[in-house]
Amino acid sequence: MNKLTKATQELLNDALYYLKMEELKKACDMLPLPDKGKKIDLINRIIMFVQTGKIIECSIIPNQSRASSYPTQPLSADALMLYGAYKNDAKTRAFFKNLIGYHFHFTAFGIDWLTDRWLKGEPPTYQEFANYWIEETERRKQTKSRPKEEWKYINFLQEMNKKNSLLSKSELMQQWKKIQAQKTYEVFKILESIRKTN
After folding, report:
1. Which of 50, 95, 100, 125 lies at a 20 to 30 A Cα distance from 57?
2. Which is it for the CA torsion 60, 64, 66, 69, positive or negative?
3. How many structural domains does the chain have?
C-alpha cells in the first residue's frame, strides 16, 4: 500500500465527506472495496484501507435482532423493535407520540442508537427506545450538538449563514456545488495515484 503524506491523508479524510453516495460507491470500486452500507460506512472503509490496507467488511445485523427470528411482534411498549419489522410510518409515529408526547419525531441520533443496538444483537423494546429518545433530547437542549461530519451540506449552510446571511439560496447552492466538485476531484486524483502505485 502506497503511504500518503500526512497532509494528503488529511485532505482525503475531509474531502470524502463531500462526496455523494454514488461517488463513494465508485471510489470503493476503484480500490476495490465492498460498497454496501451507509455513507459513513463507505467513508470509514476507504479511510481504513488507504491508511492500513485493511478492508472493513459490511456490518451484518445478527439474527437475534431480526424480525425473522421472532414471532410477529405487536406494536406495544414491551415489544422488541426488530430489524425488518420496525417501520418509520404514520402508525409507529402516532404510537411514539402516545408514549413520549406530541413533540416526538424520528431523529438521526435515535436511528443511530437503534442501529447500534441491532448490530450488537440487543434490540430494544419500544419503551427503551422512547426512554432513550426523551433523555437524549433533554441532553441536547443543554448541549448543542453539531451536525454529523457526513452532513457537510448542513455544516456548510450554518457556517455560511454566520459569515454572510445575505446570500440567496441559489448563490449558496452555487458555492456548495463548486466546493463539492473540487473535493470530488481531489478524492479521485488521490485514489487514482494510489491505484497506479499498487
Report:
1. 125
2. positive
3. 2
How far is residue 197 from each of residues 4, 43, 44, 192, 193, measured CA to CA in Å?
A: 11, 21, 22, 9, 6
Does a structural domain hold residue 94? yes
Asked, for residue 153, whether it belongs to a domain, the answer is no
Q: Are residues 89 and 104 in the same domain?
A: yes
23 is in which domain, residue-wise? 6-59+174-197
The three state secondary structure string of 151-193 is CHHHHHHHHHHHHCCCCCHHHHHHHHHHHHHHHHHHHHHHHHH
Rounded to two decimals, what is the model's pTM?
0.71
24-67, pLDDT tens digit by residue?
999 999 988 999 888 889 999 999 998 888 888 888 889 999 99
